[in-house]
Amino acid sequence: MKEPLISFKNITKTYDNDVNVLENLNFEIEEGKFYTLLGPSGCGKTTILKMVAGFLQPTSGEILFKGQKITDVPANQREINTVFQDYALFPNMNVFENIAFGLKIKKVPAKEIKQKVTKALKLVQLPGFEKRGISEMSGGQKQRVALARAIVNEPMVLLLDEPLSALDHKLRSDMQYDLRELQRNLGITFIFVTHDQEEALAMSDEIFILNDGKIVQSGSPVDIYDEPINHYVADFIGASNIVKATMLEDELVEFTGHQFECVDGGMRPNEAVEVVLRPEDLELTDVATGKLQVKVEAQLFLGVHYEIDCFDQEGNEWIVHSTKKSVPGQWIGLTFMPENIHVMRLNESEAEFDARLESYDE
Ligand SMILES: Nc1ncnc2c1ncn2[C@@H]1O[C@H](COP(=O)(O)OP(=O)(O)OP(=O)(O)O)[C@@H](O)[C@H]1O
Ligand SMILES: [Mg+2]
Fold first, then answer.
1. Among 12, 23, 37, 43, which residue has the most ligand 1 atoms within 8 Å of its CB, making it the best to mutate?
2. Of these four, 20, 177, 222, 318, which has the most CB atoms within 10 Å of its CB?
């Protein structure tokens, strides 16, 4: 395997109050990929970024950059730049001066600074804004200036702490697209922080899902969406149909009082589990042919499909996405494929999950 660009080895971080914000954290970042740290407020995302950047020291453990320990290397000597959560531009400087600041400190010749700033402004789609005052820019434009200010230093790694949080929905989706393009064009490594799961799914090559200072699951957006390892991840990533179930034997699971064929295994016989069924994997049928019988409570038209809110006899809620219309108050059937049933053990860790899949596949 290629040597990772950044490695966190057994990193623990405690602030003054003796509580471990991060505990024994291990992960690797490969060069040239778009990574996202996804997790709720307070789970430790900014703390991780600050340690990568060199603004915070871990309490114990080592941080490696291209295989070399950089735990004690100060921030300004790392090939890493950060766009902070509050983007902290200099209000008394114009756009050009803000972007040029770092280069001036490094004593880059004026002509080169001008070329580099012009190029960075083009990349963030603000060409010609050099002389604008920061107070005369919109929130989205400021955010772009903050990005340009980081890119202009040509770092190997760009850290982005919720850089889109201040933007309205439309601008936010435009910027998501632009950032992704920018990362591909520059080919540098991005570590992006968000608590928005849709944003994480749309932008990343690799997602780390965090809870309470731990990585609960890591993988590509598709892996995580299709195979959430537990209730926390499934819920966080936006799954809506999660029900209690019993794994009778390999490839046979029982929920809502019925037995269903599935493709998972490696659990104990009759182990209590949970299953996820995605709204888009459920199909409407008549009551007789349905694998599940549900009563339609409400229906919303969402532009591309209907979102249908149903309940089964046991009171479980089932959200269905379908291009077919249904009638509130009526009983209907739902059907699905065995591979659409995602079985999750209660509180299984990522390592246990991987080990089980490996042993079950053999
Ligand atoms: N300087 C500090 N001193 C003490 N505790 C801190 C300090 N900075 C952060 N914390 C605590 O560490 C935990 C993680 O904080 P962190 O800022 O890393 O979270 P986050 O995931 O970035 O959250 P958010 O999404 O709200 O930005 C929180 O419980 C926070 O209260
Ligand atoms: Mg934060």
1. 43
2. 318
Are residue 206 and residue 262 in the same domain, yes or no? Answer: no
Report the 10 Å Cβ neighbour count for 95: 26
Q: Encode pLDDT of 152-178 as tens digits.
A: 988 899 999 988 877 778 878 888 888
The pLDDT tens digits for 286-326 are 999 999 999 999 999 988 899 999 999 999 999 999 999 99
Tokens found for residue 116: 């580099």
Predicted TM-score (pTM) of this structure = 0.87
Query: Angle 159-182-134 (CA atoms, 0-180°, nearest 5)?
Result: 70
Q: Are residues 254 and 273 in the same domain?
A: yes
- Among residues of the chain, what percentage have pLDDT more than 90? 71
Q: Does ligand 1 have an atom closer than 6 angstroms to the CB of 13?
A: no
Question: For the chain, what is the domain count?
Answer: 3
CATH of the domain at 289: 2.40.50.140
Do 181 and 140 reside in the same domain of the chain? yes
**Can you tell me which atom of ligand 1 is nearest the CA of 47?**
18
Is the Cβ atom of 91 under 6 angstroms away from ligand 1?
Answer: no
- Residue 11 confidence (pLDDT): 96
Q: pLDDT tens for residues 272-288?
A: 999 999 999 999 999 99
